[in-house]
Amino acid sequence: MLIVYLPASLSILVAVILILIGPIIAFFLLWKAIGFKGYASIFAYSDGKTFLYKLDPRVKLLYAIAVPALASAFGFYVGISLLAFTLLLYLFMTNPTKNLRFVILLMLSIIIPSAWIDSITFSGFRRLKGQLLIALVPPSMGIRGVSLLGLLFGLMVSVPAALEVASVFILVFTSSPSDMLTSMVKSKVPYELAFAMTLALVSIPKVLDAFSSLTEVLRSRGFIGGFKLLPAKTFIKRFWIYIYSSGIIIADFVIDVLRSSQNIALSADIRGFRANKKRTYYHDFKMKPVDWILAITLFIAFVIAVMH
Amino acid sequence: MTWNGVHFNMHTVIPWWGMALYFVIIAALFVYGWKKHVLASFRTVDYVYMGLLAAILVIWNFFISPLIPRFSAITTIFYYPTIGELFILFLVAALIGKPGSVSIMMIIYTLLSDIFHYGFGGEPFWFIYEVTAYAILIDLYLLIRGKYMGTPYQKVLSFKAQAVADQTAQAQAQAGKTSKPKENVRKIPGLYFLDGAVVGFIVMIAYNFWYQGFWATFVEGYLYTLHYVLFETLTNGIGGIIVGIILAPLVYYIKKVIVGGF
Q1: A208, A35 in Cβ contact below 8 A?
Q2: Rounded to an integer, what distance in angstroms lies between the CA atom of residue A206 and that of residue A200?
Q3: Are B223 and B213 in contact (CB under 8 A)?
Q4: What stretches of chain B show up as alpha helix (H) in DSSP?
Q5: Which residue of B has its CA nearest to A15?
Q6: Nearest Cα residue to A166 out of A288, A79, A283, A251
């Protein structure tokens, strides 16, 4: 065990850095690997022919609810087995490599901060002084150091969260937005709510794209990037410009996204949105026997998990 | 005993009977809204606003907000990543201006955030938290402000003044000048600052008052003291009022551009 002796004020600083460093590193890893453009492209649905694409979206949603619940209820070994099985399902997608890469990175962005926070707070909460890898003396803000046992504990407890991401993206990657909308309406979700929900889902790439374009414009004009120490007066002036410009930029971004609202509403009205209480469908959506069997199995699994 | 990650711990700062009473009132409001066909009262474009702003909220909370170093997360004074959420909720209320709009958007957002990030552990209580902690309170404020939310205008709420306005409109209609009754609207300069302060206060105290005061204990089993919850609520409430006032002109500007007529 490495013991680091520090003055109290420096100990606070080290504790703050320890708290922040894990989440920031995880997010920047994801940011560098995927970026906004990557996020936007990931939400775009691409058609496929395998059994995953033929399953009813409701079954896939039930899978995303039931499987993480099972992992939470039955612990690490069940969780890791279900995670391996879920990742195996990605091989039956149209773009398995691209989708797997994205999901693994996204899982890491959840697992790393969780494990890190546990590694620095586990010892503080459980008072396991002997388990510390690096000890901070005096302890500050509940942080007593870095614990390997805490890190492993964090990795283990974040399996259900990772599984949640892996299972939900099966639904996102293999179901078209219109299928999701139809399946929601068929499940008696009010049509208006289903419409707004589907619109939100399909708008995520568009909004990300708008934000990405905006950051590119700002970068090209030298607004983002670069850090240098400035004299106090210049710093205050620059700071005020940043604050003021940020307001203008936020307004521009929101207006850019919302400007299409009238066209979307008009387009929906032209297609008979809410024209009649009952709608007919060109592509009718019915649960097949295999969907029913899977849905009932998953529902039973979910009930067992929550009752456990 | 736990069920779907819910601990049912009743050692909460807000007593269970207080929450029960609050839920009865909220449930009655929802039943009343359902009977009055609230969903049908929204225009198509209102649902589009809800969908687009729910998407912006998802992006703010899961893609942009994590970029902000959370120094404030380890202080007890002010949690500034919530500013984005406050801004979007204020914008929904201002753009749509109908009671129920914020609650519906939060239901959409909660479902999306459960799918993409949080998972369904603890549900359905997080839906109830998001809606009852702040969305429904902003909706109740919209009962007073209506479509003038986020602007310096206010419909005169006095029945007498409205009756006079209706009579004038009727007389004008009979004279053939206009066929549409006109609302009795008054301009109060800077009224949107009050809207910002109210929404800011409601949103910023939600985490400290409602979550730490009840839901964190009830669902996750975390325990808080009364003094801690009150101190956090007070400091964040003041912060919320200040941020709401700062955001108000921005929301008014966006409303003028998108909706027009103000």
Answers
A1: no
A2: 10
A3: no
A4: 16-35, 38-41, 44-59, 82-96, 101-113, 125-130, 136-145, 159-174, 191-205, 226-258
A5: B74
A6: A79
Strand-pairing partners, residue B6, are B3
Chain A stretch 19-38, residues whose beta carbon is closer than 8 A to a beta carbon of chain B: 19-20, 23-24, 27, 31, 36
Is 0.80 topped by the overall pTM?
no
CB–CB of A201 and B55 under 8 A?
A: yes
Per-residue model confidence as pLDDT tens digits over A193-244: 888 888 888 887 778 777 777 777 777 776 665 556 667 777 777 777 777 7
CB contact under 8 A, B4 and A306: yes
Chain A positions touching B53 (Cβ under 8 A) are 258
ipTM strictly over 0.90?
Answer: no
- Judge: B52–A207 Cβ closer than 8 Å, yes or no: yes
B43 to A265: CB separation less than 8 angstroms, yes or no: yes
Q: How far is CA A269 from the centre of its chain?
A: 32
A141 Cα to chain B: minimum distance (Å): 9
Cis ω for the linkage preceding A190 (within 30 of 0): no
- Residue B145 contacts residue B262 (beta carbons within 8 Å): no
